[in-house]
Amino acid sequence: MRLHVVDHPLVAHKLTTLRDQRTDSATFRRLADELVTLLAYEATRDVRTEQVDIHTPVSQTTGVKLSHPRPLVVPILRAGLGMLDGMVRLLPTAEVGFLGMIRNEETLQASTYATRMPEDLSGRQVYVLDPMLATGGTLVASIQELIKRGADDVTAVVLLAAPEGVELMERELAGTPVTVVTASVDERLNEHGYIVPGLGDAGDRMYGSA
Ligand code: URA
To answer: What is the pTM of this model?
Structure first.
């Protein structure tokens, strides 16, 4: 697994305002959307392209276009939905799938409760969206589901990560073609599973249901 923490003043600025508890839901959604677009720019650095010939008004030249099969963008419900627009803004031709994950409170195992995506992901580049990489259980289970379907290149775009979640991913997804792109790896998880200093409950802050 590769970890890429995006170091950029605009990313740091937007993240600081997202963290601030005074930021209201409408501003939070707008900033999260902008931050995802900045992360998406880095996350798509290795998106597959093919060479094409075109004519400019002046001459003929060669350039690149995104190649087929199209990349697949998969937000994890519910909070990942708030990241979808920011991602597809840069990848408008991507296909979008959905993954609903639920955690069994007794076993603490994450499992899938809803999927809407192609059965066969062989040869596909997949971008998974989930704002918070906390314990890592949900993201690991999601990525295992994508790999089971044949995905051979998975990039997780997360706003914030905890070291505990990064460690779980490194352990569980060792040797798999997975990259995590994030704005920050914070200090730790607290006893309630929140990232510290974090930004609170991302879904509640996005949808105003705190
Ligand atoms: N999920 C959240 O929304 N926030 C956290 O801090 C951890 C998990």
So the answer is: 0.94
